[in-house]
Every structure is written in C-alpha cells, then in structure tokens.
Amino acid sequence: MDPAITAGALPATTATPARNPGQSLDTAMFEGIRVNRPAAEKRAAAFGARRSVKKLHQAAWLVNAVRLIDLTTLAGDDTAGRVRRLCAKARVPIAPRIADGLGIADMGLRVGAVCVYPTMVHHAAAALDGSGIPVASVATGFPAGLMPLHLRLQEIEWAVAQGAAEIDIVITRAHVLSGDWPALHDEIAAMRAACGPAHLKAILATGELGTLTRVYAASMVAMQAGADFIKTSTGKEGVNATLPVSLTMVRALRDYGAATGHRIGFKPAGGIKSAKEAIQWQVLMKEELGRDWLEPDLFRFGASSMLADIERQLEHHVTGRYAASHRHATS
Amino acid sequence: MQITEILSTMEYGPAPEDRSVATDWLAGHDAGFGHFIGGAFGDPGDGFAVTNPATGAEIARVAQGSGADVDRAVAAARAAQPGWWALGCHGRARHLYALARHVQQRARFLAVLETLDSGKPIRESRDIDVPLVARHFYHHAGWAEILEDTFSGARPWGVCGQVIPWNFPLLMLSWKVAPALAAGNTVVLKPAEYTPLTALAFAEIARECGLPDGVLNIVTGDGTTGAALVRHEDVDKVAFTGSTDVGRQIRRATAGTGKGLTLELGGKSPFIVFEDADLDAAVEGVVDAIWFNQGQVCCAGSRVLVAESVEARFVDRLTARMGKLVTGDPLDKNTDLGAIVHPDQLARIRALVEQGRSEGAGIVQGTAPEGCFYPPTIALDVQPASVLATEEIFGPVVTVTSFRSPQDAVALANNTAYGLAASIWSETVTQAMDVAGQVKAGVVWVNGTNLFDAGAPFGGYRESGFGREGGRVGMRAYLRDDAREGSGAAPPAPDATPAARGPGGIDRTAKLFIGGKQTRPDGGHVYSVGDGAGLAGLGNRKDIRNAVEAASKAAPWGRTTGHNRAQILYYLGENLSARAAEFAGRLETMGAAAEAAHAEVETAIRRCFWYGAQADKVDGAVHATVSGHVTLGMVEPLGVMGVVCPQAAPLAGLLSLVLPAIAMGNRVVAVPSQSAPLAATDLYQVMETSDLPAGVVNIVTGPRDELARILAQHDGVDGMFYVGAEARMIQTESAGNLKQVWCEADGARDWAGPDGQGRGFLDRATQIKTVWVPYGA
User: Is B264 in the active site?
Assistant: First the structure.
C-alpha cells in the first residue's frame, strides 16, 4: 500500500505541469470537426451499461466523488450563515461514523472546493480558513454574462482579491452562436489575465449553444484562450450537464492536450444529483481520458444535492440498512 | 482490500451477474435434455456435452437428433399445423403475444443462460439479445393478428424446417420461429450444436404459456441432424442462418423440391470512414461492429476502409480505444469481450491471423486471459488480396485499408463475394446516401452499425444469401409463393443439320442479340425451328458469356429513373403495336391459330404498358423501427438476370418475364422458347427502334437447358427466372454464387393470360436494401 495513504493523506495528485498558457486563436483545430449527436448519445449511454462498480469498489468510487465536488450554493437568498453551513459540510462531507465504518476516518476526506457568488467569497474564505479547501467564485456577470467586459473583468479581480482561488467565468453565448471566434477567444483571454494566479474555469453554458459541434468548437477556443478547466453549465440553463455534452467536451480537451501537451480540467455542473450519476461521470473520465482525470486537479463536479445522496449510499454500504438524509448533517 | 487501496488505482473491481436461477435450472436438468417434440421432452439418450466456453466445464447434456427423431418432429409439426391454422389470426396472435410476454418475464434467466452457453458478455445478452427477442415476438404477434388483412388469401407453407447458428442462439430462434408461427406454419427447429440451451428453455416457456403441442418442435444435434431436417421430404419451407458453405449445401439439397428457401449467410462487411466523419463516433462504431459478440457476427463490420487523409488519426484513436476493452469472464458486467464459442473456432481465428501476419499485415492486439479467449485485434495495412480481407474470420479481428476517393471506397467495399451489410461514416448526407446506394449490401447503416429491429428487413445480397427477415417482406417469406405445378417435358435437342424444307421468300436469318447488336452465334451453327418456319442461331456457352458481359456493362440502366424505364417500355409497346400483324403472322407460322396469335400479340402490348406503369411505382418503404432513426427500405434490382422462357406463348411468355426484370432496372440475358424462338428474334428490331439501351436485353437462342445451366453456373448472373423441367439442375448449379432463382415447370400457367403478369414477378426481380440513418442535430 502507498505509505502516503496509510498516513492519512489523499492519494497523490498527478504532478501538475505548468498551467495551460493558452495560445492565439487557431480555428483549424476545430473547424471541420463535426460531432454526431446520436453517436455521442449512444456512447454516453454505454458508460452506465458497460461499466459497473459494486460493493467496496462502489463505496470507493463514491468517496472519490466526494473529493471531486465543488460544493455549491448560487442562490439569490444566500447569506453569510448559509455559506458557513455549506463550508462546515465541505470540511466534514460525510458523517464521522460513516467514515469510520468505511475505514477512511484518517484520510482527511473533504470536497474539492466551495463555490459561491463573489459577495459570498469572504464568508467562505473565513469559514474554510486552514482547511486547505479552495474557494471558487463565479464571476463575469454570472449566469448570463451580459455585462460590459470591463465590469466583468473587474468582478474577477474583485473576487480574487476577496480570496477566491478559482474563478468560474461565463462566456458570451452570442459569440458562439454567431461564430465570432476571435471575440470569444479575446474575451476569455482577458478574463484569464484578470484571474492572475487564480484558476479559470470557463462555463460554456452548453444548453444554450444548440449543437455538439459548437460545444466542441467553444471548448477548443476556451482552451486556446487559456482556460484551466472547461465547465458545462451555470446550472441556470434549461439543460445543464449531460453525458453527451460532457463526452464532447472531454474529447476536445483530449485533442487540445494531444496538440499542445497541456492538461485541462473538466467540470460538469448543474442537475447532477445522484450517486449513480457520480459514478457514470467518473466512468466517462476514466474511459475517455484515463485515471488522472479522477483527481480534483483535473475533474470537479459542480453539485450541491449530490453529496447528500452519496452520503446515504455510503451509510447503506456501512450498515446494510437504507439511510435517510435527515440523519445526516445538511449543507 | 480497503477503500484507500481502491482509491489509489480506481479500478472497477468485479461485478458478477447472479447466475443462480440459470444454474438451478441446469441442475434440475442434470439428467440431460431430450428433444422437444409434440409438446413433450423425450428421453435424452446418450447425447453430447454442452460446455460453457468461458470455463470449458460441461453444463448440460443434450440429445443427438437422429433421422428418426427428425421424422417424429416433422410428423408432430405436420399433425399440429391444421389446428394451428384453424385458430385464425387472432388466435395465433394471442399465443405470440404470450410468448413475447413470457420472454420478457424470464429475460434475466434467458440472458444468463445464453451467456453461460455461448460465452457472450452478459451486457450483450441482457441489453441486446433478449430485448430484441421480445421485440420480435411482439412485432410478429401483430403480423399474426393482421395477416389476412395484409396478405389477403395467402396461405402458409405448412411445416418449416429451421436451422440456426451459435452466435445469437435465442435471437436467431426468434427471427425464425416468430414469423413462421405468425403466418400459420408449424416449426421444427434445430439449434446449433454448441448452443442448444436457450432453445430448450424457450420450449419450456412455450409449454408454460400454452402453445399447442406440436406447433414448435426442437430437435438438438449436430450438422447431420440439420441436414436430415432440411432434406426431409415433408418439410415445406427451409430457413437457415449460418455459413455460406452450408448454405450452398442446403441450396443443393433442396434444389428442385419446391421447398421455400431463405438463407442468411456470411459476410465480410465494409466499414467506410470518410474524412468528414465524426472520427470518435466511427471509432466507437468499430467497437460495436467487430468487438460485439467477439466479432462472431455475420454482419460484423470487419473491413475498415478509411480515407487516407485521416487514416493515421483514426488508427491512433482506434488503437487507444481498443486498449480500454476488457476481455474476460462473460458473466462480469464490465466485460466487453467474452469467450470464443468453441476451441475449434479459436484455433481458426488464430490460424487466420497468423496467415495474415505472414502476408504482411501489421497486427495490433489488446489483451485476453488464458482459455478460450481471443484479444481484440486490428490488422493494419491489409491489402484486398490478403486472406484477412477476403475470409470471414468470425472473430474480433478488424482489418484497416485506406482509400483515396469515394469511388475508390465503393470499389473496395464491393470487392467481395458477400453482400450482407455496410457501415458508412460521413457527416455529409450527400456523400453518405450516394455511397449507401452504391454498396452491394442488404443492410446499410449510415453513421451507425449493427442496428436491428423486428420491423426492419435483414438479409444479404450476393453470397450472403437471399430472403429477408423482419418486417413485411420477412413475413412474406413464410407464406407460400405462387409457383405452380407444371407438366412440360424438356424440348427435344435442337437439330443443327439441314432441314427438309425452309420458309421460302427472302432469307431472314435470325442471329443472336448481344450488346445491342445482332451477332452470329459463336459456334457458327443454326438449328431448324417450327417445322420449317425458319432457322435460329444455336447459341453456346461463349454466347452466354458474351451476353452476360454485355448485360454487366449496361449497369447504368439500373440507375435511370423508373420514369425513363417506363418511357422505353411504353415505346416498346408502341412499336410492337405498329407491327402487330407481322408478329401475329410469325406466331401463326410457329403453329398458333390466327385468333390466338392476335390475342397473344395484344397481350404482349399490354404487358409493355403494365410493366411500364409499374416501373415507377414499386416504392420502397420507411419502416417504423426505433426512435431517432430513419429506416428506409429501398427496392433495388438484382443486377444481371438470366431469363429462361416458357416454350408456349413464345412472345407473351418472353415478355412476361423480361419486362418485369427490366422495369425494375435489371439487365437480362434471355433464352427464348427453344422450339419457337422466332417471335423473340423478331423483337430485335423492335428493341432497337424503341431506344432500349444496348445490353439491357440480350437474347441467345438455342438449347434451353444447356444455356440455362451456363447461366445458373455463371458467377456474374445475380438472379434467374427459369421455366422448364430442370428446376433441380438450375437450383443446384445456382449454389455457386447463391443467385436468387425462381423456377416453374412449363405448362403451369397460361403465359398469354392474366396469370402471366403480377406484382410477384416484380418482387422476384428485386431485392430490398435496408438503410438506417440515425439523426439528431
């Protein structure tokens, strides 16, 4: 066994090379790439049918999912108290008795990050102080992004100054819908510059882009503009994270990596609620990209209620009895 | 193992399917299985062992069917058939519906049993095979219900003898049994020697849901049992799925017996990837094409043809994808490839791959455990001459060959004796549909592969067999066709020596008509016809060869519009009409009474109009199959047809067979009435003045059965109509390339009367291509 694990640390994340520096727009990397939707849907459906994790392995995969969660609250009624509650859950995502039962009490299980609105960043940063859990902030006029660019860039800088280590930006969908790739590239590049040391996750709002072919193109432009992660959705679109969209994005990410050598992260977000989905998305990452993309430096779930379902499944694994959420701490 | 360990590797771990219901069932039958005849299981006798290929362990013993067993089963089916038919449409529909329901209720048991018996992954038997079985019975419960409304007046064959393969044991049973029963037939089915268990389980299920005794009979055994069944004189219709070699044997064994026959045989199906394809989608397509059921699939896309411009990228991705495949325990839910069905089959795959390697193919393989397993394999740089490109491997081995242009791709795709299926990958509908039309295959999947549905006809072109399963055309194959009993004896041998007298007048020597030209017979002989009516060319095998070559070159005829073909058929009628008196006179010199001669010419003119009318009206279909898919049924000509004409009604008889063939786009080599060919030879001028393109109709006069034999043997002839006494010889000889043949004796119908025309002739001159197009923006 890996000594680092017995010592209670997390499995070592992969050695992270330099951040994706981005590059100038290169439309040849995506023009001519057409994504066949029925084929993508068929492949996406196969992840659940072709791969199955049972018993102890299932528990392990669910524990891993917890590590990948960007535990999120993005609501109009968010308050300091609400954010503190979320952060408390982030520090102790599953009840100690369950962690004990799973034999992972000393591994220091925590979520990947806490994700909030900019004005909530300092509450979150304070509540997470010393935990090592980064604060992610949405920015750039989330969720629609239809604000003047200079204000969106200022918002990023403000959120970073508040303590956000990760910025989830939204793109101007109109640039994709009109095929204005230079405008999309320049906008995201400017945001990346505004992030400074903070990592940039580019939310493509795929539910509003219409076709998977555009999803592929937008993914590629975002990576060329320097995104550290590409992310499906704000959670506010009519259609949020789906497996076919995710498949398209991770294939773009794979192709970008093959062309440039840079490893980009992926974050599906919105509508992912069940433990079963947590497994399916991890299967997708492992099958399409490999084991490295099951680590929080390269894969996150944007989710809030999924954690509750995972906790119930894990308790069932420990006790053999079906669990009820009211017996678990709420986030 | 602890969770922390798993977290470091993130392996999937074991996910075994529960096998207990199936193993309990097998334990309950540890005395062995007898045949299921007349509603009861017989004595197992000595029998033979059935093994689980994944472990090599014996899991059951089944009886070896003897000729006497087949006799008893056929007798039981015969006895049950009148009662089954008497149940009526609704009565049979209720039984088929019950079978569908019971298959669904026993789905997991059947899936596990299938996997134990065949070695296929549980994911496939659970998610693909068994759901398709249930769907097949539901669909055919529907056909049973509306049989009389749809096929008014049609009658079943009677007793069907069916032989099925080991690759999809229960699914192939359903494809055979459901339409047979829906049409009112009773069945004797022989499952494959390697995989008889789900058929026996199905027999129990049929008994459980009250299927009347004798309607379904299962006789287990090896090839000798199957041979006894297909040769049985009281079997009316034979349906076979399996190898092309055995298909040929069955074609010969049933020749001249009048038995209905459909054959679903082998394939070497192309998988064409254009540069504008979604390459990732195409890579996943290969997984579903050749690594489905370990590649033991008759319609497997086993030849990847990829545009040279994307070949390197495609191969890289395909290789990477292959590396993710898991070969192993078929009962584990994470297994992608299970066991090869039998060590003999494994040895064959190994030998073929080694031969391919020695021919220069680059072999790239995944991994497989010890035992009866073979790793997923890609063979690179495979040239069309390689054994890997020509032989059906029936294993998880895909070849990769590059092409330069769409024309090149089509040429490579069609460079095979087979014609079962094709996959075409392109995001451009213009290109994909063009190539779909050009590939010689009974099933074409555009941006997809191995898509099946009970409502979509499935079956092959060329040496992949004939007949379709599924949908309306599949039902039609289980209803008796309208070939009738005849009496005609063979005409006397033609006499090439000078006759006692001739016709007088200015000499008109009838030549042959080949490639639009009147040509002298190769042998340089003529023979006397019609008791001094004249002389006709004595055609020989070289004339047939030349005629077939001319017909092959006239391929554009098949691509012209029905409207264009109709115009020419009407024009034929018009020109025939202008010379009606002359033709009537000719028929009189060959022995027809004046009134009959005029009537026959009038019929011939009408035939031109009737088939001209049909030329643009034999529509295809859009089948109701799976949501998100357009499934087209395209009606295509067979290609080059040999048409051997009746002795009587020498004008109307010839046109009654030639016109439906050419109306559908076939090109014809016709052998006219041997004893009265001069009405046919007079047609040369009519055809020439009617703008019929050269080579569409070729006429070779001479010894009927000798010429017919050469046509039947010719690998470039795709189909035949034969009227005469030698059906057995013709059907036997046709086994060489398994051309589709329709035979009837002389005198079975009045070719100058209404029986001489009908939709049936058009159906027999065509084949159905099923084209699947999944869609989604």
Answer: yes
CATH number of the domain residue A295 falls in: 3.20.20.70
Q: How many domains does chain A have?
A: 1
Active-site hit among B114, B145, B264, B733? B264
| Percentage of residues of chain B with pLDDT beyond 90 | 95
The whole-angstrom separation of Cα A242 and Cα B537 is 73
Does residue A18 form part of some domain?
Answer: no
Averaged over B213-229, what is the pLDDT? 98
Cα A46 to Cα A40, A41, A253, B123, B628, distances in angstroms:
10, 9, 20, 10, 17
Give residue-wise pLDDT tens across range B546-594.
999 999 999 999 999 999 999 999 999 999 999 999 999 999 998 899 9
**Parallel/antiparallel/unpaired status of strands A69-72 and A113-116:** parallel
Q: Is A84 exposed, middle or buried (0-12, 13-18, 19+ CB in 10 A)?
A: middle
Of B5, B281, B284, the CB nearest to A1: B5
Cross-chain Cβ contact A104/B3 below 8 Å: yes
Q: Which of B14, B280, B629 sits opposite A251 (nearest CB)?
A: B280
Residue B230 near residue B208 (C-beta atoms within 8 A): no
Enumerate the residues of chain A whose CB falls inside 8 A of the CB of residue B319. Answer: none
Q: Is B298 a catalytic residue?
A: yes
Q: Is residue A177 part of a domain?
A: yes
Residue-wise pLDDT tens digits, A215-228: 999 999 999 999 99
Residue from A52, A66, A242, A294 to probe the interface with B (highest B Cβ count within 10 Å): A52
Residue A87 lies in a domain: yes
Residues 6+ apart with CB under 8 A from A112: A67, A68, A69, A70, A71, A133, A134, A296, A300, A301
Q: Report ipTM (2 d.p.).
A: 0.94
Average pLDDT over chain A, rounded to an integer: 94
Inside any domain, residue A266: yes
Average pLDDT (A123-135) is 98
Residue A138's domain comprises 3-13+25-328
pLDDT in tens, B398-449: 999 999 999 999 999 999 999 999 999 999 999 999 999 999 999 999 999 9
